[in-house]
Batch of 4 targets.
Target 1
Amino acid sequence: MSELLIRGGTVVTADWMEAADVLVRDGRIAEVGHGLETAGETLDAGGHWVMPGGIDTHTHLAHPIGRLGVTTADDFYSGTVAGAFGGVTTILDFGLQDQGGTLSGARDGRLEVIRPDAVIDYGFHLIVTDVNAAVLGEMPGLIRSGFPSFKVYMTYGDKKISDDDLILLLEVTAGNGGLIYAHCENDCAVTHLIERHLAAGKTGPAYHAASRPPAVEAEATNRAIMLAEVAGAAICIAHVTSSGAARHVAEARRRGAPVVSETCPQYLVLDDSVYDPAGGCEVAKFVCSPPMRARHHVRSLWKALEEGSIQQVSSDHAPFRFEGQKTGGCGDFTKIPNGLPGIETRLPILFTHGVASGRLSPERFVELTSSGPARIFGLDRKGSLRPGADADLIVVDPEREVDITASMLHSNVDYSPYEGMKLRGFPTWTVSRGEVIVADGELRAERGRGRLAERSPIEASELP
Ligand code: URP
Ligand code: ZN
Ligand code: ZN
């Protein structure tokens, strides 16, 4: 029997916050109470907050971008180490179906890639790119066996699926406890606008954003929600960035539709000023899809988080090195690999700009970064400090402030979009299944110690 006692901290869950001790036994939460004792290891959490570990349900580690012949710069070791330093104890990444391939083949191949490297627990959404009868037939079994969510792209070249195919997928998830997780942008409009910009000689990184305006996102978001309603299915909208998309989600929820959504830190603290053409190739550091938006959209997203119409904040960690990866598109923005690094800074950004600034309660912070994601994606043993839950938790000194530089972060990239920011909310200790894996800036985790997280089918009625 192994025990760990986290003594004298302030415990914060999605529902309550009070001074308490947390006793962990054999990797699970045993008790939360007062005056607890152990013969095992004790962490003195005086002055700290003790919270469920972060769950990041949107990461792209070792993720190939076939069209550009590049792969994201973090593998499952560097990416999960970065996560652990940023307070993340579970990730859900992606497993890509090849054209002509099966979903179970994608699952098996992805498990082989992740298993030797991950230092925290993991799972993944299967990205469906080729919809056919065999794939639709595989889905119920995958859902029952712990792979209940499926990512779809409504744009993005060879990964895009049609509306016809989206309805078919939604019909299968509706009846079987699955969930479609949708990247929503109108492909016709994006393709058209890219061609217009290139033809006008507007080829630099700054024009990426102009080719994907907010209306493109709002239209596809509404279409995905409506198709889900037609099929009687639940849906999760990935990375909401604009007021229009957020409004469609909020309206659907008001009429009782099982629609949930996420946003990401980059859309909450950056804006479209990063796309100033005067920035030259440096702008490529901020190329992601959807792009950052004007300030009034940023304000709408904060309002949606406060009011509850966005239910989770994930990172969409898609790290590419500036030198040699992003710079490949300095003269043609369509050649810049899309995405930002952010797995390590997600919790600190939301803590600093949400909790410390008074916009979000500490409980809401836990809901958005841990308990909500667990409920949305069927991670029954994660995201809470209830007795019996996996003892995944973080111990954070709420006053400690860190100056962000790329070199102090652990991702395998040569820049940070947040360089120069001062952030609070980094953990002093990160605990995964009762093991201290980060202590005072030191990694204690062995490569490959992470496990596949158990997941259940997703009941629409249980969604936050
Ligand atoms: O620009 C982004 N977000 N790249 C990652 C791929 C995705 O999910 O959109
Ligand atoms: Zn996406
Ligand atoms: Zn993504």
Target 2
Amino acid sequence: MNTDCLFCKILAGEIPANRVYEDEYSIAFPDINPQAPTHFLIVPKEHLASQAKALVEHEQLLGHLLVVAANLARSRKLDKGYRVVINTGEDGGQTVHHLHVHLLGGRPMHWPPG
Ligand code: 5GP
Ligand code: ZN
């Protein structure tokens, strides 16, 4: 647990979040400022500051987060598609420095992203 980290505080139950999914390695909850009709954050229980810090030892965890995203998308019937995003660092638009996967769906997405 990183005491300065918002998502560590959510994981510790210090800040409330509606856990739509939880397992040994991760939780998922709705984004407080949704950018699409469906917008979940999938957050590993281990504090890893950023995708930029990923090492070979994180392979299993990172793969797991994508499978959780796929399961959530299926459970929410995002049959027309969706987008998964990992904002990374300043240029990537990352604002919370605890790695997380955004799952966005329920509307067409644009490319290139902003
Ligand atoms: P980032 O910008 O780092 O990729 O994503 C951080 C996300 O966390 C943002 O989309 C923001 O809306 C969301 N967020 C920030 N604070 C809270 C909070 O207290 N609760 C929830 N559920 N989401 C939050
Ligand atoms: Zn954290």
Target 3
Amino acid sequence: MTAKPQATTPDRVVIFDTTLRDGEQAPGAAMTIPEKVQIAHQLARLGVDVIEAGFPISSPVQADGVRRIVQEVRGPVICALARAVDADIQAAAKALTGGEQTRIHTFIATSDIHLAAKFASDRYGRSMADKRKTVLSMAVDAVRQAKAFTADVEFSAEDAGRTEVEYLVEVIAAVVEAGATTINLPDTTGYCVPREYAAIFESVLERITLPEGVVLSTHCHDDLGLAVANSISGVLGGARQIECTINGIGERAGNASLEEIAMIFQVRGDRFGLATGIDARQLMATSRLVSTFSGFPVQPNKAIVGRNAFSHEAGIHQDGMLKSRETYEIMRAEDVGQSVESIRLGRHSGRHGLFARLQKLGVHVPDAEREAVYARFVTLADHKKEISDSDLHYLVNVPTSEAKTPHYALDFAAVAVGTDREPEAVVRVRHLRTERVIERKATGDGPIDALYRAIDHAVDERHELVNYTIRSVTEGADALGEVSVLIGIGGPCFAGRASSTDVILASAEAYVNALNAVAAHRAEEESVRFVGDGIMRAFGG
Ligand code: KIV
Ligand code: ZN
């Protein structure tokens, strides 16, 4: 494996994107491998320096995801996560094999709180001092092992934000000596406040002279809503890499949001004199892609990429804007890829209008997919008066179904409801192996219950509906509704998603997609998404 450490200059901040690793750890955000690959290509277009593509030891799907990204995505360094143990490092190295620029990111906890809980057994030492010695030597061994596979090795002191500084410095000095080229000091629990977090970096830099090319990194969680502020503060304290995610998705309250960080350095260049390699015009397209594939909506008032981030509602603001945009605007919508279009797209728009708008939005459509995108546009335009930019993002980024060879297709679904009757559904499900079409009816506690009972009859199985979510992915009364379902079969859960302007149809198709995932799981255990899989196990030790 060939690799080189990340080159930096003092005025450049390395953007390390962990949407596909820490971001995907957000409960319910699991993505399919093709979706991850598509996001990784978009991150490369966005200009991130490092993509943390996954945690290979945690599940075969994670390992495959990293492998595919290494094979297909060019530009950024591709990184894989590993605990400070041999098997993890081997798994990370294997998944990164053949990559042009690869990084192994190994981590171990350093705070007393974590040591007491996770290294409680006497085999790690009886006293805290002994446990600290064990952890330090595990960290050094892990970095040395990783160095055998790649020159670019990152070490994270998990829970650095609550680690005693003297010990933290000792660990950092040892792993740098062992060859770590990036030292990440995560505020794992989102506990720090900005001055405090900056002081950690300052203390480290006062006590250790880092060799040329070794970079300190921030990694902040948003439990107190301070992830972005802390990341910037870490940079003021001397860090030159920021770990962050698109839309701030991630464990619990999430991670520092990449789009906010990128725009802070762009808009307030005067204050920091630091730059990132991010092409801000790609931010909106990236945000929408991640929102679609993770199933996490972006709140309308979200900074930079929220729908309202550039709308001025109050009369006094509108008046000011008309006089001079500078009155209430510190950046322009078009700078971040939000469009300010007056031309409406609808049923009468042609290919040219569609692709010109997509290009303006920074949405990349591979040549091979143009006709399929146009066909989806025409179908949607038949159902919607006006196609919005959110519709367009969604049309291009249709979530992929995990099942390569589906077992079932929905031919027809209808539900009769009324104030004076029990909801009744009728469905026709095609069994693709036999081409038999089975029609079934059912009643239920509500329209969706009736629908899902009817589908269960048609496939002759009973499934537990673990979760059902419906959200409007675009605006207006004729908005596209996206339905996500999670079904259980007495053990693992399987996800299905679908979207349509008709929510009954989207609900039925999402359920059938989940059934296809179940069927594929039975046929080929490795290739399905097992929601809530080994990541949790790996973190649990
Ligand atoms: O939050 C954290 O400490 C992490 C590490 C694995 C880097 O995500
Ligand atoms: Zn984290």
Target 4
Amino acid sequence: MEIHKYEKWWMIFGTGTLIVFLIILGVSAFHGGTHPNNSKWTINYENVDQIEPFNNPGLHKVEGKDWDYEVVLVAQAFAYNPTEIEIPVGSKVRFIATTKDVIHGLEVAGTNINMMLEPGYVSEKITTLDKAGTYTIVCNEYCGTGHALMYSTLKVVDNNDNN
Ligand code: CUA
């Protein structure tokens, strides 16, 4: 069988682009941590307040895990619980969040923490907070009349700074 010259180039080009896209997808998924919500962790959104860990929202120091802290966040129209979180700079943190009513979009402005919160599902993100500062946790998914008022504050603090 004879393959025409242009046909051969086209096959090389096609295979090449496929490989490039698979590499980009692989890097963003495994290195960048881009992935959909953890659909395996489901929750009854009507009883969020009674179910662990959401019965105790806030910052928790953890031992013997790959991360130093866990931040448990509960979203509802139109607020986050807790309204303020303070974490030492350089901490590796696992964010765990869910919603009690409609879909909200939990985004820590200025970072790569950006999770859609869907009723009945728990969203997670593990990240290292290596830049001190005050970050606003916004809602980036329109959820009703109070959407623009829905926020919480994340303070990443340097304890050696005496501030
Ligand atoms: Cu919650 Cu918009």
